[in-house]
Write a structure and sequence with these properties.
Length: 183
C-alpha cells in the first residue's frame, strides 16, 4: 500500500511539473507542425536566431508551409522540408544571413537548410532525427522539438545517399501557437 501511494504521488507530481512547463511555454515562440501522424510542438529560439525565427513565423502565418512535402529524409540523420517545389531547389525567395551559435545539433533540433553559401538559408529547414555534431556552428539553429518526435520518426525515409523521398509525407498545417490560442 505504501509503495502504491508513493507511486501515485510521484506520478501526480510529474503531471503537475509537466503542466507547469506547458503553461510556461511562450505561445508566440511555439510552433505547431501537424503531420498525418500527429502534432509536433517546436519551441522557437529567438535568443539564438532572431531573424530566422521572425521569418519562419512570417511564413507560417501566411500558410506557406501548409501542404509542403518532406522532400529529403535520411534515416538516422534528418527530415527536410520547406521547398514549395518539392525538389529541394525552391524557397520563398528571401535569403537570410546565417545566425550560427554554439547550440549543438541534437535529436529534435530544428535548423535552417542552406546551399553552399552560409547566407543562403531561405524557407527550407530540417529536424534532426539523431545527434549531428558535424553540423555544429555551420547551420543556424532556430528551434527544438519539445513534443511529437515520435511523429517525426514516422516520416517516410528516402532512398540512397540523397535521401530524396518517392512518396513524401507533407506538413498538414503549421501554426504559431499564439494564433491558435487566439481563436
Amino acid at each position: 500500500m505504501k509503495r502504491t501511494v508513493t507511486t501515485v504521488l510521484a506520478s501526480l507530481l510529474l503531471s503537475l511539473l509537466l503542466a507547469a512547463a506547458a503553461l510556461a511555454a511562450d505561445p508566440e515562440n511555439t510552433l505547431y507542425l501537424d503531420l498525418e501522424y500527429g502534432r509536433v510542438t517546436i519551441e522557437l529560439r529567438p535568443d539564438l536566431a532572431p531573424a530566422h525565427v521572425a521569418r519562419i513565423k512570417e511564413l507560417v502565418r501566411t500558410g506557406f508551409y501548409d501542404g509542403i512535402v518532406f522532400h529529403r529524409v535520411i534515416e538516422g540523420f534528418m527530415a527536410q522540408t520547406g521547398d514549395p517545389t518539392g525538389t529541394g531547389t525552391g524557397g520563398s525567395g528571401k535569403n537570410l544571413r546565417a545566425e550560427f551559435s554554439l547550440q549543438p545539433f541534437v535529436r529534435g533540433t530544428v535548423g535552417m537548410a542552406r546551399a553552399q553559401s552560409e547566407h543562403s538559408g531561405d524557407s527550407q529547414f530540417f529536424i534532426c532525427l539523431a545527434p549531428a555534431p558535424f553540423l555544429n556552428g555551420q547551420y543556424t539553429v532556430w528551434g527544438q522539438v519539445t513534443s511529437g518526435m515520435e511523429y517525426v520518426d514516422k516520416i517516410r525515409k528516402g532512398q540512397g545517399a540523397s535521401g530524396m523521398v518517392q512518396s513524401p509525407d507533407k506538413i498538414v498545417r503549421m501554426q504559431v501557437a499564439a494564433d491558435v490560442a487566439a481563436k
